[in-house]
Design brief:
4 copies of one chain form a homotetramer. Helices cover 31% and strands 19% of the residues of chain A. With 345 residues, chain A is an alpha/beta fold. The first copy, chain A, folds into 2 domains: 124 residues, 3-Layer(aba) Sandwich (Rossmann fold); 163 residues, Dihydrodipicolinate Reductase, domain 2. In chain A, the strands form 2 sheets. In chain A, strands 8-9-7-10-13-12-11 form a 7-stranded mixed β-sheet. A 6-stranded parallel β-sheet of chain A has the order 2-1-3-4-6-5, sandwiched between helices. Chain A is globular. Chains A, B, C, D: It catalyses: N-acetyl-L-glutamate 5-semialdehyde + phosphate + NADP(+) = N-acetyl-L-glutamyl 5-phosphate + NADPH + H(+).
């Protein structure tokens, strides 16, 4: 498989370059940037010196289609909605890491993203690529909408309970925490080191654009349709997301039975690791890897279950899952090129 | 006022030394340690060199009472329960920064702390010193149980809603995040720099010993008696706590009216700052100071209010509030010696 | 004393606001910004909410002179060179925290700063305010050029040896490390949290604009005039500078005699603390304070002395020393309003 | 090749587990610990869950030799000196990551390490494995003394100048900075998060045990035998070392010619990357990889060259270089299993 990367100067694009460098079945043939074409890639990312021969190229779907079979769109919101139709026309498969093709209800997209939605036909064609739960449809997809970082951590953690109809969905509260690389590479006052170091912030209270994505997907596993509380914080660290989730159970349960359920559901999912009962994952334990680690506990006092899910936001939350989807599309072992042990400490 | 500090080699004790160094009305006359008596204080804390003449002394209530009027107990759980009766007998006032005198129900203390409780009479005499809400009783107290760091952030943030009976208490979820200094000065694998740096952890899931403290105090403002969900995380930073709180309202409200309520309730509280509507505090904005900063928002979609409360865990969460209580006991302006602008950035 | 602060939205200006808030003899009467006049100060710095009534004002020397006695210039390079003459004309005293008035040789200024120099008369009038070594001239100064952060750490550490003619100045190597707040408040890719966190950089190799400042001052204590090696690194922390200095001795010495010399020289300097022999300071031990802590050792194997000097770059390296100079100019105790114990941990 | 890892619960051992997990030609057959035998490996390192089937075993050379061809000693100082003779006797090859076999002069070892030296015969047999400079002798070695982290960064950076006799060795000053993982996994007050975060320390001034290692190796490329100044600092980060090196040149040079020299010398070294002139590496640019990145500049003003060398202390400074040496011993491509692009950001 030959791949092109659009938006290679962002963190998602750089992570694709890193992973695909050692992928045995997929070669990067070109990297693209709308603003920096003609510039050597290593000028953007000195850590790739001597390993990436790339010069950034401008974006022309038909030129790309001459050399590549698939494109990764690692672009900010509002770009893929315009470019993907051209890529598809040119005969390319597309894996879109942005949010542009995830929301099936175009009004919802426009309300939460405050941008014009992609054409209806493209959005309808796009398969939501939460690898563990959408394997069949990803396998044959031409366009994959790669899930957002927060929705990936959230859904992998909570879908087993939703799918089995064990929780009252209206009581679901997701308190999420992200590393700062989730904010992208553009500097700002919020991400300025002296302001973010030794600091902990909450942001976009009740307004994060991943809310409609999570709600849409929950309804695909549940009859109940209800708004949920989802809030996000910035942690002074580079990589990692933790979603701490609380929900009331329909019937009293015990931790063991829920734990068994998770182990069973994810038995054949090589990237989901269920922690032994009584222990919980921390973000560093998945650093640089494609794992999603999950811990859970049932609290008798409150009849609530707590589920804790961690990922590396740039890996399972972006580039890693994109390559996992690529592997599924190629019909090869889904761990190909991704079977790293996390970088610890 | 002449004060002695027991447990001066811990972080709470060191913070008392720092604050009282520039307090105009209270002088530290001695610092004490059970394990390091005879050693110069600066050997424990080189940052105090040339500013603290202290040599650590052993702990003898009657000797202390010869020089001091009041003792601060900045000791781990299980110490004050034994020492406070002696201190009171010797005629000393006590401000206890540990959890030993906070829980009125002795069985609850023993269940959550897994230690023997203090004598019933001492616990009953102790006034819970959440300064903003207990001013009258602190003023005349002989023994003050200084609130825990998490309960301080939580209660200052949520009590206005509880007190006005606006929320369904059974829906209250408190997702709390703390800096690592909250774990004290003893090194451990969890707090080892390479393991904690660039990491985010959850700990003591559903088992934190501050749960009974919060529940006990909530019942003092509410008729409803119900277990609440309270969970705690470690943030890779040195100081600061954020409590993110979610609760369903009994009746639909709007953000403005709730915001007005908070402004009104804390109008005369110099250390509580309500953020302008639409903005939320981050922990660094109270670093090194005695402030508790609060932001809030009402979410129509879910009929939930979210309240965000931040403090410096060593200041308003420990030594700062202890000195604030001292000021109240002395009948002087409660900001005396505490009117720092936070250290930012 | 009534003071105005120019450039109050930068970190140096914010630190002046913080310190002067609790200074008993100097009141801030106005804060100024060329770009944000008319805006409430708390909008720039929420940590000052409820403690600073200020609205940012534009900069007009004659208007300022109606209300203030002295101005602090906390401006980037190239501003004070233009504004200070006006301030002096308007009858104001000036303490300039920028580099504009420090370099007596105007060509050197223009070469290293790549900006037009201030008028010769103003530069000549300006007294270099390294408080411990320039007390007499600061006392009567109208214009003080407040030293740079790196030169302060460097000179306080090495001048005793230079002054006593103990080292070969040509062998002096200063390897300096700074926290990121030294780069100011403007965000950039270098200071973007995900790039700076868990990272250590070297920058401006052999080209830092503090080189001519250090060399100029060394010649004021030494007959030898020689270029020195001075290099700077960025540490992933918010505050603090360490200068590690190496020099060959003219004659063999021992650590004890050098240590005695330092203790003697700084005996009456309340902000310089000499560490006990065998121990060395770390930056956190001066965090938020005006101290300069110094450790040293003589290495027989190489006949080199190593001197380690640490400061808080925003305090002794900027605003703290500026206020110390203010105190000296006012003829009051130089620790007034500055006698903080460092914030530790 | 079948490998055993002794000391697998330390950071060096864990990094070997991580790398060898995806090494195509070397399989880990057992992991050993003197104190934790019988315990599942994932209990020490949850990040390896589901990827390491290992149970820690006790250390018995003859048992190990039944299953393995080579052992990695990732043990603290003082262990390998005792175990390596047994391993060699049992017919095993040894790559020792500790300092025990590096110092040829046994008195020097005992003086700097304050431990009993290994038997003379073993030390003599051990080949110092600085891969780029010792390839021939490593290829046929039975015992490899894997270089220390600081000596690796230092020697790769400075040997080209020493080897070509361009610098006055007596003027060489190495100012080194390390991440905290270099201190190992045992918690201590120095590495306690609240004390190390936002802090910068100097330690072991003039007394670091890597001094004799560096001096010994320099004399293997130089006729000049002279003590050098080498000092070490702790940076608040998890991984990475920077060595900043200063030396006076024998003759005036220019940056270009020195830069050309480095490019030429390291032309065939896949893990050494010379930065373009005018740019310098930072530690994050080699994070998680086996690279050593080098930048340099000649300063006309002082006739000094400055060389800056960065590595990941756990990779090129320990486990990565050990595997590189393994590859060389096996006669396969030296990048096998090591060709990672660094994890950035």
């Amino acid at each position: 498989m030959r791949a092109a990367i659009i938006g290679a100067t962002g963190y998602g694009g750089a992570e694709l370059v890193r992973i695909l460098h050692s992928h045995p079945k997929c070669e990067v043939v070109s990297v693209h940037s709308s603003s920096q074409s003609g510039i050597e890639y290593k000028n953007s990312y000195m850590h790739t010196q001597d390993r990436t021969p790339f010069v950034l190229e401008s974006i022309d779907a038909y030129e790309i289609a001459k050399k590549a079979d698939i494109v990764f769109m690692a672009t900010p919101a509002g770009i893929s909605s315009k470019l993907t139709p051209e890529m598809v026309d040119a005969g390319l498969k597309v894996i879109d890491l942005s949010g542009d093709l995830r929301i099936k209800n175009l009004q919802d997209y426009e309300k939460w993203y405050k941008k014009a939605a992609a054409p209806k036909s493209v959005v309808e064609e796009a398969v939501y690529g939460l690898s563990e739960w959408s394997k069949e449809s990803v396998r044959t997809a031409k366009v994959v909408a790669n899930p957002g970082c927060y929705p990936t951590a959230t859904l992998l953690g909570i879908v087993p309970l939703v799918n089995k109809d064990l929780i009252k969905l209206s009581t679901l509260i997701i308190d999420a925490k992200s590393a700062v690389s989730g904010a992208g590479r553009s500097p700002s006052e919020v991400t300025h080191f002296p302001e973010m170091n030794d600091n902990f912030r909450i942001y976009k209270v009740n307004q994060h654009q991943h809310i409609p994505e999570i709600e849409q997907m929950l309804t695909s596993w549940s009859e109940e349709k209800t708004p949920i509380s989802f809030n996000t914080h910035l942690v002074p660290m580079t990589r990692g997301i933790m979603a701490t989730m609380y929900a009331q159970l329909k019937n009293a349960e015990n931790s063991e039975s829920i734990h068994d359920l998770y182990n069973e559901i994810y038995e054949d999912s090589p990237f989901v690791r269920i922690r032994p009962l009584g222990t919980f994952p921390s973000t560093k334990e998945v650093y640089g890897s494609n794992f999603c680690d999950i811990g859970l506990s049932y609290d008798e006092r409150t009849n609530r279950v707590i589920v804790v899910s961690v990922i590396d936001n740039l890996m399972k939350g972006a580039a890693g899952q994109a390559v996992q989807n690529l592997n599924i599309m190629m019909g090869i072992e889904e761990t190909t090129g991704l079977d790293f042990i996390p970088v610890y400490p």
